[in-house]
Amino acid sequence: MTTEELKLSVATLFPAATFDETGEFLNVMVNLPEFRNVMKTLRHNSELSFDSLFCLTCIDWKTHLMMVYHMISKQHRHVLVIKVKLDNTVKPEIETVCDIWKTANFHEREVFDLFGVNFKNHPDMRRIMLDDNWDGFPLRKNYVDENMISL
Q: Mean pLDDT throughout 53-76?
């Protein structure tokens, strides 16, 4: 499936989605309320079959957080990036996808630990790298540590 065919297929399934084609992969921006349904459909739709989630991360844009999911269909050999804006930077949360892709379990815990995003319905939402008593989230732009070097 070409990028244009993939875009058409996704646009048909999710009319509210917006696209960015400036990078290496087709980027699809979805709204938070639709997120869970979009991810389940991308995984289980036979035309798309995104059977592998190979990257899941977060970006801090100061005014909001952005969750970013990279998926590939091994069967169809196409790649897609899903982005979801999280406006609540005080208590950011999004539904887990670790029941859709097992690999998300570790990645979601990492994002929780370093960015403070809570993944609702995650089976084991706890810190994975930092101590339980660690204060703050080191990959947030507003994070300050007395040992940090100021530029």
A: 97
Q: Report DSSP state, residue 39.
A: H
- Is 82 part of a structural domain of the chain? yes
21 found inside a domain: yes
Count of alpha carbons within 13 Å of 31, Cβ hemisphere only? 6
For residues 51 and 77, is the Cβ–Cβ distance under 8 A?
A: no
Query: DSSP letters along 120-145, please?
Result: ET-TT-S-SSS-TT--S-TTSTT---
Q: Alpha-carbon distance 137 to 143, whole Å?
A: 6
Secondary structure of residue 42 in the 3-state scheme: helix
Tell whether 54 is covered by a domain: yes
Summarised one tens digit per residue, pLDDT across range 112-148 is: 999 999 999 999 999 999 999 999 999 999 998 877 7
Q: How many CB atoms lie within 10 A of CB 48?
A: 21
- At 93 the three-state DSSP class reads strand
Number of domains in the chain: 1
Please report, for the domain that includes residue 47, its CATH number: 3.30.460.80
Decide: pTM greater than 0.85: yes
